[in-house]
Amino acid sequence: MPKPPTWLPWLGPLLAAGIGAAVGKYGLGGGFWTVLIAALIGGFLPILGNALWKWLERRRGQ
């Protein structure tokens, strides 16, 4: 399994902004808290994906 890209965790702020804007404009009523929660979840997804990728890589190496 190849190593995760080094830029993957840095994708979080861009993804958070995109998801927050999309939810604010198109979905779920677009209230402040809805947008904030969606942006926070979307912003942490690349970080969690990177951690999961590294964990799986370490597990396969054993």
From TrEMBL:
One of its GO terms (molecular function) is transferase activity. The chain crosses the membrane at residues 31-53. Keywords: Membrane, Transferase, Transmembrane, Transmembrane helix. This is 4-hydroxybenzoate polyprenyltransferase. It comes from Brevundimonas alba.
